[in-house]
# Entry
Amino acid sequence: MDFLWSLIVGGVLGALAGAFLGKDVPGGIIGNIIAGFVGSWLGVTLFGAWGPAIGGFYIAPALIGAIILILIVSLIMKSMRK
# Structure
């Protein structure tokens, strides 16, 4: 059950980061989950573990990390289209 909860929270975090930036996450729901997981790791690594935690994710650094990750991925995807 913990794994399912982590998938849901990771997907929501990825979707929130994409909505905040107004950019689509490549891969749809799976992309949102990956962005949430990797963004959480990135955010906690860069900013530390602080704020409320839900499903093993520290919400504030995870959301900031997901936003950074989506920005990086969108820049890479944009440069590959040229």
The helical segments are 2-21, 28-47, 59-81. The longest strand covers residues 53-54.
